[in-house]
From TrEMBL:
Pfam families: OsmC. Signal peptide: none annotated. This is OsmC-like protein. Transmembrane segments: none annotated. It comes from the Bacteria. SUPFAM superfamilies: OsmC-like.
Amino acid sequence: MRNGFSVSSSSEFVNEIRDDAREALFHYHATACFRPGRGLRAWTRPAILGRIKSARRFALDLADGWQDHPADPQPQEHTPLDLALAAVGVCSLKTAIAGGSARGITFDSIEMVVSAEVQPQEEDFLPTARVRRIAYDITTRSDADAGLIEEVTRQILDRSPNHRTVKDTTELHFHAGERELGWSPAAIPAGTSGGRTVRRHVKWISGTQFESAGLDADGCRLPLRVDEAKQFAGVDWAPNPQEYVVLALAAELASLAAREQKAATGSAGTWSVHAHGLLDLRGLMLVDPAAAVGFQTIGCTVDRPAGLGADEADRYFRTAVERSALVELLALPHPVEVRLSSDERETLRAAAGR
């Protein structure tokens, strides 16, 4: 064991997936529901980790970003974008720690500020923004020299699943019942100006446990916890980085679909979205170079509100998909800059989107 990671267990897992590729297929599930008057809630559902079913159940109340909150003008809930950035940051740090542990590095601490430059389609409305650039500012303290730390940190660019999902083109599918809905990201209207940077601080606690907190003056101060299932050295403390991705996507789409219905009819019904993501760990573990490191596919299925016709519900949901910041972030490739600072103040700049 080093840094709470078992290097020998990783080697055993590589042998298992070489013997049976099904052991490498990890399915993550989440559901989000928007209810009028009650807001937005998202929760994980059991994950299928190879041949193991892991009973994962974590729930979060989230800010939808568009309702009036007269009693709480600055609600403390996280947004779906907060969840997504935390997921990307933690996954990247975890990759660096795992790689460093295999190389004999003992980390005293490792943390990151992950930032996203966003261009809102509407004034200061993040759920329909377009992410233009992402940056990681990583600070480490360890017993290793700066050259080895730089080498390990570079592994993020190739072997962090959530990083690769953002960096690469990812296949996304959207369904209403059995019907698959075609979609394409909506362009930012001509003449749109301004923009902002959303930042989150991610820190490693121990083993697979992390915390992430917002850094914006008007952001949520409550930290998000991140952890793995017990089958993978976690303590079931919180959702893992991949679960946060599907949680965030389901939540944003449920909220946006309700918003579209309210804009068209004056009221919103109850919208539920179920999200599923598939990872094939053969790419991450270097067993099959042809396997994607990031999510192979991400799919979402919507349950339409009671009393709403199928065509009308499809229209609202498709518009939500086309305008979603997270759909655009996950489906299309984005440039990512990595900057590394150690005690020696060595700096790494790597444009992962090139």
